[in-house]
Amino acid sequence: MAFRPSAAPPRLARVRFQWSATTTSAAWSHTTELPLTLPLSPSDACALELSLHRLLRLPGGFTVFTVRRADEPYAPPLPLLLLHGLLPPEQTLLHVLVLVRPLAQLARPRQLPPPPLRLADLSHSAAAAAELLRRLQRDGTARVCADERLAEATRGAYDAMVRFFTQPAAAKAALHTKCLAAAHNERYAGYSSDAGREWLQLRLRLAAPQAGGGRRTLPQQAPEPFERAFLELRRASSTCLRALAAASGLHAEAFARLTDVDDAPPHPPSEAEGDAGGESDGGPSVLRLYTYKRVDEAGCGCHAHADLGMLTLSPSPVCAEPPHGGAPGLLVYDTERLCWDEAENDLGPDELTVFAGEQLSLLTGGDIPSAIHRVPPPSDAGRFSMPFFVRAHPTARLSGRQSSRDDTHPDALRTPAPDAVMDWLCQDFVLQKLFRCRPWRPSVDQSWRVPDF
After folding, report:
1. Segment 78-104 mean pLDDT
2. Spacing of C-alpha 406 from chain mean position
3. What is the DSSP string of 89-149?
């Protein structure tokens, strides 16, 4: 199953659906409100789609492709089947905008990915930066060719993963370390696992080591090739963020300064950090070195979701078994064709897949959309991957803006609704929106714990 099935019991809700459209000579809006039992079954979702066509007076040959909350114009649009995930448990009223598209769009063939951009060009070429922005806007992902330093570091880390993950379970588990003293805060570095994967998570060590001694990452006992890969991917992500900010007409530091991917002083703590359990030893951005379990090992891969951070850089994955060749598996959801695209097919061994998370989508008003993606369990051999997740500091101020994109679809409403909140403390945005109004994350009871982010 692509999306994580809901574990919540059925509940009654009232959902207001709004379709707004404009042409060169007219503008109109149709709204209907329906009582629904959530979550919807697949047959319920199909019946609802037909009802909305009639109630919203859609033209022939068009239908509802996706929906998003009216107060989140930057959020990824979702199929009707996932309506339940947009409504927090304590609420019963939901207002959504519908995105209407021509049915003929479903038959549009997928375009082959263009040649990768060169990481070295992104730091000094305005044309390369503009192309990176354009690809993320159009395709949701972009391919970037690593420079030699980064390529060498990722190759070394993959070699070290073979040795690390074949250790006894106790040796791996010994590397798990909390980054905050508060019992209710779950930020950590080190080893962890779920039903489909094992991984080692590295973070930047915010307490700077003395000159000539100490590691720059947590956990400090992690193999040295992992730290080298972390630092090189951190450098690459800083280059990408600066390129995207400049191409968006912003100061080059506008995005990077909110994160820990450069060597500027750490983001100053605020009173809000008390809610998160105090100042962390580890930075917000993480490198996760994954090994995926095979289908015959009861592996379930990774269900569909959008990343909660700013940007994800994922080096080309490799097979966990000799001869360690390529192991494509990342699938990205195309909301304009309602299908899954194989994002890593023919990805070169020294290439990266780059895509945005929801924090960056908020900052750009949806100009840079967050990519919904998943990884099915490998069928023949295990899979190694090492995505680097760039995240804003919990106390960073994320101030969104209205989208400036010229969306050629007349039915795509991008103007924020009157109740849209576009200015958030990062911690509040993650806890109140991304952990409460998304179908891929269980709702978090903020009264007792703060999840790892």
Report:
1. 95
2. 24
3. TT--EEEEEEEEEEGGGGGPPPPPPPPPEEHHHHTT-HHHHHHHHHHHHHHS-EEEE--HH
